[in-house]
Amino acid sequence: MHDDDLARAGSDAADALRLSLNARRADLETLATGVRQTVALWQEHERAMVSLLDGIEGGFDDPNLTAGPR
Predict the structure, then answer these.
(1) CA of 40: how far to CAs of 44, 51, 55, in Å?
(2) Could you give the CA distance from residue 3 to residue 50 in angstroms, rounded to a whole number?
């Protein structure tokens, strides 16, 4: 093998590695976006549940509410 062939093979290998790393980066960015969206949905769910529980707990203290027919 000549020096030119070795240089070309090294360059080709570097290009292939660069493409592979770029693909992995894109995969990780997609994963990170999904994680951020999931966290945001869970935070929204948590806020809604806290609000619901606050409303239920507040109802226990409301003298205008009745237990209903007995």
Answers:
(1) 6, 17, 23
(2) 69
Encoded tokens for 27? 């995969």
Amino acid of residue 66? T
Q: For residue 64, what is the DSSP state?
A: T
The span from the CA of 35 to the CA of 27, in Å, is: 12
DSSP state of 63: T
Taking the C-alpha atoms of residue 9 and residue 14, their distance in angstroms, rounded to an integer, is: 9
pLDDT tens-digit readout, 17-40: 999 999 999 999 999 999 999 999
Look up residue 58 and give its amino acid: G
Where do we find the tokens 């869970």?
42
